[in-house]
Structure formats: C-alpha cells, structure tokens
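DM from R.C. (forwarded with permission)

"hey, sorry to bug you on a friday — could you get me a structure for this? deadline for the figure draft is monday and I only need the backbone to look sensible"
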Amino acid sequence: MKTRNSILLALAIGLAGLSGASTADQNPTTPTTTTIVSVAANNSDVRTVLHDLFGQVKQNYVLEPNIRFALFLSLDKVDFDEALAIICHLAKLKAEKQNGIYYVSNDTGPATPTNQARPKDPAPTPIQDGPPPVTQTTLKTKHVTTRLAKTDIRKVFATIAKEAGIPITVDGSVPTFKMDAFLQDTTLKYALDQIAGAAKLRYRIVEKQTILIYSDDTENRIAIRTD
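My reply, with the result:
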C-alpha cells in the first residue's frame, strides 16, 4: 500500500511540475525597453550627453569624430526621439538609424533655419577722397622743425605747412614783414600759437581742409625766437 501511495504522489508532483512549466512557456516574461528619458546638461559636452541618452534606452550608437558642443538643457521624462531631435538641433548634428544602430554626425547639409547662418562679409572700407580732415587733434600730433632767420612770414608759414603736410593759407590782411622762426621738433599747434601770438595774428581751421592765418592789425616787422 505504501508503495502504491508513493507512486501516486510522485505522479502528482510530476504533473504539477509539467503544468507549471507549460504555464510559464505560455506567458514568458518579456523585457520592456523604455523610451522615456531625462537629460540635464550645464555646459556639458554633447558627447557625454548623447552617451547618457542612448544608455538610458539601451540603444547602440556610433559618434562621428571631431564633434564638439557645450549644451545647456534640462529635459525631464520626455520621449527619446524628441530628446534626440532637440540635442541634434542645438548641436547642429544629424542622427540616422541603420540596422538598429544610430549614426550621429555633423549636419553639413544645405542651409536651413536650424543651420548656423553664414556670417556676413565685412562692409568694405570706404575710399577716402583727398587728404584726411584737419582737426585740433591733428595740430597736436604733427611736429615741425624750422630754422629761419629774417624770412618773409608767408615763406615761414609755407615751410611749416610743408613740414606738417597740411595746407596753410595766409590771408591778405596779414602784412608783409620778415621774422626769425627757430622751432625744434615742436607740435604744429605750439608753432602756430607762438608765431600768431607774437605777430598778433590769428588762425583757424577752414572747412577741415586748411589752416587760415589772418590779422586784425598791420604791424610791419616782428622777430620771434623759440627754442
């Protein structure tokens, strides 16, 4: 009797095992691949961000060399495809899937609104007609040297004009007289101030092109010496 009961128990256990195995075969546990990702980057390199992104969805990818871009973004629980599209848009990349592998490369296609705009050519430098304008700064930067003794004042100013490279016109109101002008590497302004002051003359810049020397009185002779 014990032997018969033992045989029946063994058969029951075997049938239960077969039944469990059959149920397991009919309902296998299928691993699921999530497509929801979260990505955060604060001045992070795009290569590191992509590595994390593909790692979350367990996808194979190949990254083209020489890809560099710093990303600033925060994406929380978004679809993988959307996150990948955003990153590629920001970093000017393109991603193509072939045989289950994502290939990421620089986007060198035709210009689109997402491509970086081509920098404009610099505006051409306008060609300046004639000599540069005469200003007060010009008078302070030009230097002259003269050693003239008993020389007509018009010739003195002509010599200074040649030294400075700036036209100087002597008005008809300036009397004709001779003077001494000894100037050693002085600014044009200092030279004009000394000569005009000593000879009781005045000067001004006319239309930013020339210096006009004129007088309010008619002294005949004056000699100046400046070191």
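R.C.: lifesaver. Residues 36-106 form a domain with the Phage tail protein beta-alpha-beta fold fold (CATH 3.55.50.30).
me: no worries. The mean pLDDT is 78.
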